[in-house]
Amino acid sequence: MKSKIIFGPAGRPVDYNGPAYKAPEYIADEGLSAYEYQAGRGLRIGEKSSNILKEESDKHDVLISIHAPYFINLSSNNKKTINNSIDILFKSAQVGECMGAYRIVFHPGYYLKSKENTLKIAKSTINKVLEKIDQSEITNFTFSPETTGKKSQLGNLSDIIAICREFNNFEPTIDVAHLHARDNGLIQTKNDYNKIFSTIEDELDIKRLHCHFTRIEYIKSGERRHHSLNELDYGPDPKYFLESLIECDFKATVICESPLLDQDALILKRLYESLL
Ligand SMILES: [Zn+2]
Which domains, and CATH codes, for the chain? Predict the structure, then answer.
């Protein structure tokens, strides 16, 4: 049986040299139970490799998610960008279903001059994606818009909640480092985490909360660089994060996005176990 909170890397483990689609065995051997396949720079994985990834993850009990391409911008005022974004999200759902991904993580886009208009356009784009999926053979998909790290990006906590409330098949990805960075050091105490998680609990019906974690460096406009867990100069704090998740009683998947990926995911896992 899976633990209540499971951990895994955002992408291929640091010292693993095999193909990304065969990583679940290595990840499970390390003692981790989740794996976010990275397609940020494009959906290059074929059907055959996707199927192998699904088989391997079932066999080794590793929960798969996929990070869709960064290019997506649901709220662009350029029609071509919108159409490309619809296409990419649709294809991500296809590939995601093939590899058995329980979440399709994506960055929703950028603000236009009017923030309200931004959300309206993003929602209308999502409707088009869902229509396209309706007419396809895809049946199993959960889109997971992520809280983003820059002030210019659509994706503060309330944007993500608004999108997830509006549509079926939508669950949030809570990147706590991004929330920390976009508000220039938002998370200082355990209570700051509690506020985030209790807002989510109040607004959404969460069965498993998908999270990203890393320490992060930021400038005025938001995120600058991810840092590993041993770089204590940078927040947010991992212990408060896990304590708050435990107190909120969430089932959660924590994907580690620090430069040390799986190695830091293991540190988070051990820290979690020490708190139980
Ligand atoms: Zn993230």
Answer: 5-275 (3.20.20.150)
